[in-house]
Amino acid sequence: MRSWLFLAPLAALLLTSCGGSGRYPSSSGGSPNMGGPTKDIRKAQIANEPSGNYFYGRRYFVPKTRFWGYLRKPKQNARNSKLVVMNENQLRTPDRLPEDGPAGQRYGFDHNYEYRIHGRYTGRTLYEPNSNQFLPEFQLTNYELVQRNPGWLFSPKDHYSPTSLTLRP
User: Fold this and answer.
1) CA dihedral defined by 150, 99, 67, 43, rounded to 10 degrees?
2) Taking the CB of residue 119, how many other CB atoms lie within 10 A of it?
3) pLDDT interval class at 45 (50, 70, 90)
4) pTM of the model
């Protein structure tokens, strides 16, 4: 019985240290691999965006997660964007395909695509268990593809890993 009293706190300590902080690594978690324009060009592109009642959405796919990606208002820097969970009650997201389909025809095929997204924040916050985050819910009503390969999201130093969360403002 005495050994159990010693092992229980030790096991609890090991389990909590393995779980991490619940935060994901910064975008400097590896070598830059997303390409894209210079900071000055990106800044000019954002400054020249037409205003409107929509959002720019950047699809961010990490397997087994259920967030959709980052949304920002026109003319706002990506650092002001929010990682969201999409509510598909009115319209499905563009990549709503089987997760085990052929390459290019499966859920997440559109990683890093940029969209013009129409809809609204519902005011609800949802828990996404695989990333251990509470995220805002967005009601999708329409979308248009803007570009398939816009490059980096937050910084030219961004590093995307298909197995872990590496992109954050």
Assistant:
1) 0
2) 21
3) very high
4) 0.78
